[in-house]
Every structure is written in C-alpha cells, then in structure tokens.
C-alpha cells in the first residue's frame, strides 16, 4: 500500500495515468532517455505523487514488464472451446490459434509490447516462455517424431520460429502492415507448409 495515503478511485486513477504516460514515454524515448520528471509532467501529477506508487523509475519499468508478461502469457495460454485433435493437424491448428491470440494482444498493446518484448532486458524471459510453450504443444500433440521430417533439431527450429516472430512483429504488427490473423497464417505457412500438405 502507498505510504501515508489510502488507495481510492482518485489514487488508483493517478497511478493508472502514471503507468499510461510511462508506457508512451519509455516506448517513444527509451528507458534511459525518460526521466521521472518527464513522466510526472506528462501525467500532470506531482513528483511526490509518483513516489506514492513507485519506489523508482526501475520499479515502474519493472511493473510495466510484469504487466506485459502477464498479458502475453494469458493470451498464449488461453484455451480454445473447440476440441482439437491429436497429431500434427491438431498441433498446427492450435499453434495458429495461439499465435493469433498473441498477435491480437500485441496489436492492442503496441507500446507495451515494444517495452516488454523488444527493448527490456527481461524480454528474453518472454521469448524463452514462448519457445517452451510451443515445444510443450509439440509433445502434447505427440508430433515430435513427425516434425523430424524437417531434418533439423526441434529446439533450433522453434528458436528460429520465435526469432522470426520477433522480427515480423516489429516490421508488420507494430507498424500495422499486417492483420494478426494474416500474420499468424503466414507464419504457419512458412514453417509448417510441409506439414499442412501431409495432413
């Protein structure tokens, strides 16, 4: 709880405005170029108000990373209501759906994505979790042996997929050059066209 002040609707609103303005400034100017004074000025609050909610600029930045990671993982782990079959077809279907969920989250939060997925030192955690989730899906659908048709180590293939996704997110989603569903389909076609032909 904040020191010496009760959280109420005005207090929560001040904190929310600080977070929103910090997202904009960190995304536009970068972490090192953004000062606390810039954030409080943009939020139209006093510097003491800032310190009611955050110990430091680092603490605020960390909160933004946690916010991004939470939303990203929620989008990644959201379950479909439809029953997906086992095997390659089920894996490819579910992966495309999960990519779509992620890409929708990213397009709804482009500035937060720039911070949490691209610029933050913590971004490697999100990418590692994404790799682990995709590998988990492969084993869940019992299709790791089927994917050996690519004649490449599965971990290398998935790391390559995640690296490609990062680049495509920067170029196409954050620049609004591609719709989430189209980009999800493009990635599936690019990486699993051989799989789709055999299903």
**Which spans of ≥5 residues are poorly predicted at pLDDT below 50?**
1-8
Order of H and E elements: HHHHHHHHH
Mean pLDDT: 88
- Beta-sheet strand percentage? under 5%
Name the helicity range.
over 70%
Report the strand count. Answer: 0
Number of domains: 2
Number of helices: 9
Major beta-sheet overview? none
Radius of gyration: 20 Å
How far apart the termini lie comes to: 55 Å
What's the shape? elongated
Structural class: mainly alpha
Tell me what the structure shows.
There is one protein chain. With 199 residues, the protein is mostly helical. The chain folds into 2 domains: 1-54, Homeodomain-like (Arc Repressor Mutant, subunit A), CATH 1.10.10.60; 62-195. The protein is 73% helix and 0% strand. It is built from 9 helices and no strands. The chain has helices at 9-29, 36-43, 47-53, 57-77, 87-108, 110-119, 123-140, 154-173, 180-198. The longest helix is centred in the middle third of the chain and has 22 residues, at 87-108. It starts with 8 loop residues before the first helix and ends with a helix. The model is unreliable at 1-8 (pLDDT under 50).
Structure keywords:
Arc Repressor Mutant, subunit A; mainly alpha; 199 residues; 2 domains; 9 helices
Set down the secondary structure blueprint.
Layout: H1 9-29, H2 36-43, H3 47-53, H4 57-77, H5 87-108, H6 110-119, H7 123-140, H8 154-173, H9 180-198
């Amino acid at each position: 709880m904040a020191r010496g002040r009760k959280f109420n609707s005005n207090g929560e609103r001040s904190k929310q405005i600080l977070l929103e303005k910090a997202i904009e400034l960190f995304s536009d100017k970068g972490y090192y170029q953004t000062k606390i004074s810039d954030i409080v000025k943009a939020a139209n609050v006093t510097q003491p108000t800032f310190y009611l909610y955050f110990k430091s600029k680092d603490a605020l930045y960390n909160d933004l990373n946690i916010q991004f990671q939470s939303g990203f993982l929620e989008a990644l782990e959201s379950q479909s209501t439809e029953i997906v079959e086992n095997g390659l077809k089920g894996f490819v279907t579910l992966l495309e759906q999960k990519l779509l969920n992620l890409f929708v989250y990213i397009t709804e939060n482009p500035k937060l994505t720039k911070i949490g997925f691209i610029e933050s030192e913590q971004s490697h955690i999100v990418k590692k979790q994404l790799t682990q989730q995709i590998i988990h899906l492969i084993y869940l659908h019992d299709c790791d042996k089927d994917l050996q048709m690519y004649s490449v180590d599965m971990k290398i293939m998935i790391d390559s997929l995640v690296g490609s996704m990062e680049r495509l997110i920067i170029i196409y989603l954050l620049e609004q050059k591609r719709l989430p569903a189209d980009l999800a389909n493009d990635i599936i076609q690019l990486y699993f066209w051989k799989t789709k032909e055999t299903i």
